[in-house]
Amino acid sequence: MKGVVKMKKKRLFIISAALLFAWILSAVPASAASSATATVPVTLTVVNDYRAVNVTVPAALPVYVRNGQVLTADSARITNNSKSGSVRVTAVEVRNGALKVGDFDSFCGDGKIALRINGCGTRGAGYLTLSEGAFPTVRPGRALDLSYDAKVSENTGELENVEACTVIFTISAE
Question: Which of 29, 73, 87, 150 is least surrounded, with the fewest CB atoms within 10 Å of its CB?
């Protein structure tokens, strides 16, 4: 009896395998005598929101005090080195250094410095209030002259080559 059961299971297995093989062959597509083509469009979108800013800013804004008279450079400028695209100074921040930044219009106190850049004066450390037209657009290959004045406390002592304060220009592409 065991041999008959084994025989029936073997026959059932062979029949199942044959049916499975036939089903797999029916799923494979046969080669056709003709062919079809499909056209697929390629949609391209290019967005150039980013444009590098290529400018030269002064390495320093020197201030000299000689016998009580404050002297500044007259050659400071921001140059737009790009071949296309204008730039603009959008913010100017003045930070404390060896001296504290004071109010340019009502300057007083020891150990202080105050600046006025293109007509915009400090009120203390922080961002200058930029007046209309103080920092106009700089076209490609052109420069913006920086006119600056300084006030320095009389009681600062003997200082030489100290970083009295720091000026940070924020320049944006237009």
Answer: 29
pLDDT digits (tens, 9 = 90+) for 78-133: 999 998 889 999 999 999 999 999 999 999 989 999 999 999 999 999 999 999 99
What is the CB neighbour count within 10 angstroms for residue 67? 4
pTM of the model: 0.70
The model's pLDDT over 24-80, given as tens digits with 9 standing for 90+, comes to: 555 555 555 577 777 777 867 666 666 778 999 999 999 999 888 999 999 999 999
64-67: long-range contacts (C-beta < 8 A, 24 or more apart)?
65/152, 65/156
What is each CA distance from 164 to 14, 61, 71, in whole angstroms?
96, 10, 14
For residues 92 and 120, the answer to whether their CB atoms sit within 8 Å is yes
Tell me if 152 sits within 8 A of 113, measured CB to CB: yes
User: How many C-beta atoms surround the C-beta of residue 148 within 10 A?
Assistant: 19
Nearest residue to 112 via CA among 132, 127, 97:
97
Q: What is the DSSP letter of 19?
A: H
User: Measuring CA to CA, how many Å separate 104 from each of 71, 122, 152, 159?
Assistant: 15, 5, 10, 21
Q: Which residues contact 35 (CB under 8 A, 6 or more apart)?
A: none
Q: Where are the domains of the chain?
A: 55-173
